[in-house]
Design goal:
Layout lengths: L2 E5 L2 E8 L10 E5 L13 H4 L4 E5 L18 H15 L4 E6 L1 H12 L4 E7 L9 H14 L1 H7 L11 H12 L3 H10 L16 E6 L7 H8 L5 E6 L6 H4 L1 H15 L5
Parallel strand pairs: 3-4, 3-5, 5-6, 6-7, 7-8
Antiparallel strand pairs: 1-2, 2-4
Helix pairs in contact: 2-3, 4-5, 4-7, 5-6
């Protein structure tokens, strides 16, 4: 299980999937998962991407097999980007195609704005709008985490997340995977990251950008999603049929193929 020391308090777990021709120099796709997840959630995407690109799937600080964070850890999006920059440096990777889902897409948007020299293309999938007023929910969720744990919250809030087409056993897998998140990580993360307003970041994202959503996403209507997507000057919107907001999980094959096609036509030197 590959891990690397990112900082004194963080041992980061990551996976590299690389089935590219060994005589070619492959470009890299860095995949950022969402809240209460890990790099393992990209399992449906890897077969589509890893034949043409080196795919790096880290577990975000605090999540998956990476070190859990204390409740008072001072979370910031900039700090999370710093973690990924350290990982890329340690792996000897200078540039990436960046893919983010859910809150991973929020972090990815900030990453692309901050590091245009690193991010070749950006794809955000089922990701929230740049600003949400969730302070009341965060307070209630914190109490729920403390009393009943993360799995209880995941099960209670699953409606809409994965849509109506995923089979019950698939829904249960997601609930149990999310439920393994440490309560201390989750409380600190949602208190600081979930409510961060990144509206000002959008016009600074200059790389080719693909936004993927569904017709019935509860994160926002197609019109609402298009309104913030169009603030990124070199972006396009793909709307898939369905009613999930976590479309990266509910429709991995469609999303991965669309992402692959987008990267290949947007990057001047595809892997």
């Amino acid at each position: 299980m590959p891990t690397t020391r990112i900082s004194p308090e963080l041992e980061m777990h990551y996976v590299v999937d690389d089935y590219t021709d060994p005589w070619r120099e492959a470009e890299t796709i860095l995949m950022l998962h969402g809240n209460t997840e890990s790099g393992a959630v990209w399992f449906g995407w890897v077969p589509h991407l890893a034949r043409r690109f080196r795919v790096v799937r880290p577990d975000m600080r605090g999540f998956g097999a990476s070190t859990p964070m204390a409740r008072d850890y001072p979370w910031t999006i900039e700090g999370l980007i710093d973690d990924y920059l350290v990982l890329l440096k340690q792996l000897g990777i200078a540039r990436v195609h960046l893919v983010g889902a859910k809150l991973g897409g929020t972090i990815a948007r900030c990453f692309a704005a901050r590091c245009p020299e690193i991010v070749r293309t950006l794809t955000v999938v089922g990701t929230p709008p740049p600003r949400r007023d969730l302070s009341a929910r965060v307070t209630a969720w914190t109490e729920e985490f403390e009393k009943l744990g993360v799995e209880h919250w995941a099960r209670r809030t699953m409606t809409g997340r994965l849509g109506s087409r995923l089979p019950p056993e698939g829904v249960e897998w997601w609930i149990r995977m999310m439920g393994r998140t440490a309560v201390s990580t989750q409380i600190g993360y949602i208190t600081r990251i979930l409510t961060t307003d990144i509206t000002a970041v959008l016009p600074r994202i200059v790389c080719p950008t693909l936004v993927i959503t569904t017709e019935g996403s509860s994160l926002g209507s197609v019109a609402e999603t298009r309104a913030w997507q169009e603030k990124m000057p070199n972006s396009e919107l793909l709307v898939l049929p369905g009613d999930s907001f976590h479309v990266a999980a509910s429709d991995p094959d469609r999303c991965a193929q669309a992402t692959l096609d987008f990267i290949l036509r947007s990057s001047p030197s595809p892997g």
